[in-house]
Each structure stands twice: as C-alpha cells, then as structure tokens.
Amino acid sequence: MRKNNCELIRRELDELMLDETYSSSAVEHLRECADCRDFHDRQTKLRQIVGSLGTVAAPADFDFRLRARLANEASAASQFHYWPVARRALAVAALLIVFATGAVLVKNVVNRPSGSGEVARKEEPKVEQPDKPVETIRPIVQENRDKNLIAVNPEKRPQIKNDRSTSMSSLNRRQMVSVDRSGLGAEVIRQSDLLSASPAFPIDVSDQAFKVSLDDGRGNAKTISVPPISFGSQKIVQSANQLAPKRAW
Amino acid sequence: MNTLTTIDELGFAPALQQDVLEDTTSDHALLEATRSGDQDAFAELVSRYRNQITSYIYRMTNDYDGAVDLAQETFVRVYRAADRYQRSYAFSTYIYRIATNLAISELRKRKRRKLVSLTGFFQPGDGGEAQELNPPDARPLQDLELVDTERRNAVQRAIGTLPEKYRAPLILRDVDGRSYDEIARILETSEGTVKSRISRARGFLREKMRAYL
To answer: In this predicted model, what pLDDT tens digit does every residue of B60-115 receive, in sequence order?
Structure first.
C-alpha cells in the first residue's frame, strides 16, 4: 500500500512543473517518506539543470540569410514557371510514344505468319491438290522434254510434301519456276544404250538457241533464250529438238 | 525558461538581444498577411520564433550550424505552405511540428551515415541507447561558473544520447516549458504517451547525471 502510494506521489510530482504547488497529500507524504523526498530532491535538481540550458539565440544574420534563401527559391521558381505544364506534356508525350510502340509491336506480331503449313494454305488457296503429287511430275517433264517448248503450268505444278510447301510458296510469290526432281526416278542407262548411243555428246553444228517458254498461269508468257555455249569450236548445248531424241543427258 | 543563453562557449558570435516586439498581432493574423504577400508580417513571425526554433533544434541535434540551417528550412517551409495553413492549431504548434520533423529527420540521416559526434558521444549501430565516451570529471572545481558550465555541457551531452522519441518531449517540457497538451499536439501523440516518455527520459538522464546530482 505504501509502495503504491509512493509511486502515485512520485508520478504526481513528476508531472507538475517546478513552480507549481503540490497537493497537500503530496506534501504530507514527502514529509514522512525519506525515499520519496530524496527522489524528489534529485529529480528537482535534474530538472533545474536541464531548464538552465535556456534558449540559444539565432545568429545575427539569420534574417538576412533567410531572405536571401527565399529570394533564391523565388528566382528558381520563376525560371521553372512553366515546369509543371512542361512536365505534364512530357508525360503525355512519353505515354504516346509507349502506346505507338506497343501498337506497332502488336501489329507486327499479328501479321507475322504463325506456321509454315498455314502459310502454304493461305498462299495457294486455289491450287488443286493432286492425288499423287510426286508422280505427276514425270508426265509433265517427259511430255515437255519432247517438245521444243517447256511450259510450266502453275495449276499443274507438282505439289511437294507439306514440309516443303513453305519454300514452294515463297518461290511462287517470286514468280519463279522450278522443277523438283527429287521425286523422279533415276534413268537407267544400259550397256546397250551406251553402245548404241554416241560415245559422247552429240556434236551438232546447229546454231539454234535453247529456248524456254515460261507461263505463270495468268497468261503471261516469258521466253528465255539460251545461246549455244561453245568450247573452242564444239557446241555442247544442243538445240532442244536434237537433244531429246538422242538422250544425251 | 526563456532566458537567452550566450554561446560564447561554443565559439560563435555573441547572441543578439531579442527584439522587444509588440505582441498586438496574433500569429494567425501575421500568417494571413504573409499569405497575401506582406513580407513585413513574415519578418515579424520570424523574429518571434527564430530563437526558439533555433534553440530547440540545437538541443535536439547538438549542432549549432546545422540547427541554424534547419531553423531556416523551417521558416522556408512555413512561407511556402502559408496558403495551406489551417487555423485549427496554434501557430507555435504548427512551426514546432515542422522543426521536430526536420530535427528527427536529421538525426536519422546521421544515424544512417554513422557519424561520430565530436562532443564525445557515439551512437551504437543497433539504434539503442548511446554510450558516453567522456565520463564526468569527479574532481571538485573551484570556480562556480565553471561548475555550471561543465554541468550544462554534461546535461547537453546526456540529452544528445537519448533516443529521439524521448529527447523531443523532454526538451519541449523541461527546456521550453510547454504543456503536455501542446507537446502531444506537436508530436502527434497522446498526452499519456508524452508523460510516459518524459518520465522515462528523466530516468535515463538521472542515471547519466548521477555525478552531478
């Protein structure tokens, strides 16, 4: 009970200002309790020492420096008077750039071909799919081999397997004609053929050029004329009408 | 409490006598006039509070030059925020709150930089209680003036070792003589918390100042 009372009295004394008057109960307690009296004396002395620190004065040029500082800030603020507007404009411009870049990227991603098979289907929607695409090349080539004119009809163009459709479609885009001979069987040259045939290239003195006519399927025909190539006085590229029957290749 | 202390001992210029001002105009009215562009009104506010604020920050930071800079920063902020000032608080509470925030911010910056105080104290890395490097001289001094000076320096150093949450209320109460209610409003905490912190701060000081009591 006494200890509890001491705590209450000490708290009361601690909360009061030094020049405030204490309650009668506190004064009575201090008169009776030596511990609290000692605590109160030391506490009062401490507070007097702390209070004696007093106020430290500001330097003499405090006002002058403050005015200079405010003037500097005002001039700096006037220099950047339009800075808030400029900052917003910059932010809007940055946003526009970001959106434009994003739109271009998205457009590129959307337009990019997703797969080779899909592209092939898109590029050649009207091409008839032959039942046996590899075998169809032989009649065309052999048929044209007998003629002086080699015409490549896109509608009858040999269809290659799916894994090559991309390269074929890209070739079609460039309007190029090519013949895939990978599906053709190698021609068998027998001994009798060798004996009956000429021992080497049949040398012909024909001056006719080797002509190839190309049709892109839209009615546009192109004729390529290859002049005879000669090594010395011998011509090794024969005219087409002489090349086929002699089976020199 | 408002005695003007010379700072010759710190090596600075002698203190100016505080101008005797006619306190006919309230702080609120002066700030209103400042808001409308009256520079003289702001100068009057500065002259009223420059010593108090400088002294308070100096007691908090134990660095006079830094305290002057922070006091100026306090007035700059008051000037800048004059348009946003609300009259719900007393102006003294408002300006002391700004000064307290600046001082605490400075103390935290120092703690981060782990600066060692040139007055002979250092703060440990755990942010806890600081330790004294310069123990008090127990020999008796002949000159009473020297005794007082030594005691003031010791208590200033001891206050500097207090954690910031105890330091501010102790200075506001025992040095500036402000009421618990005003301290609670400045520190934005409850009155009970303020009383508790002041009591604990005195307990810390009592231990550190045992040789002088």
So the answer is: 998 999 999 999 999 999 998 888 888 788 899 999 999 999 999 999 988 877 65
Longest CA–CA separation in chain B, Å? 60
From B54, B152, B159, residue closest to A52, measured CB to CB:
B152
Interface test with B, best of A9, A46, A64, A73 (most B CBs within 10 A): A46
Cβ neighbours around B11 below 10 Å, total: 7
Six-digit token string for A57: 């004065």
Rg of chain B in Å (alpha carbons): 18
Contact A50 B76 (CB under 8 A): no
For every residue of chain A, which 3-state class applies, written as one string?
Answer: CHHHHHHHHHHHHHHCCCCCCCCHHHHHHHHHCHHHHHHHHHHHHHHHHHHCCCEECCCCCHHHHHHHHHHHHHHHHHHCCCHHHHHHHHHHHHHHHHHHHHHHHHHHHHHCCCCHHHHHHHHCCCCCCCCCCCCCHHHHHHHHHCCCCCCCCHHHCCCCCHHHHHHHHHHHHCCCCCCCCCCCCCCCCCHHHHHHCCCCCCCCCCCCCEEEEEECCCCCEEEEEECCCEECCEECCCCHHHHHHHCCC
ipTM: 0.70
The helix/strand/coil state of B152 is helix
Joined together, the tokens standing for residue A75 give 């001039």
pTM over 0.80: no
CA atoms within 13 A on the CB side of A31: 7
Pairwise CA distance, residues B60 & B99, whole Å? 10
Amino acid at A190: R
| Encoded tokens for A17 | 């200002």
Residue carrying the six token digits 């306090």 = B74
Whether the Cβ atoms of residue A223 and residue A211 lie closer than 8 Å to each other: yes
The tokens describing A227, both together, are 């002049």
Identity of the residue in B51, B170, B174 whose CB atom sits nearest the CB atom of A57: B51
CA distance B45 to B37: 14
| Inter-chain touch B148–A15, beta carbons under 8 Å | no
Closest CA to A211 of A144, A149, A147, A143: A149
Residues of B in contact with A57 (CB under 8 A): 4-7, 15-16, 18, 51, 54-55
Report whether B134 contacts B121 (CB < 8 A): yes
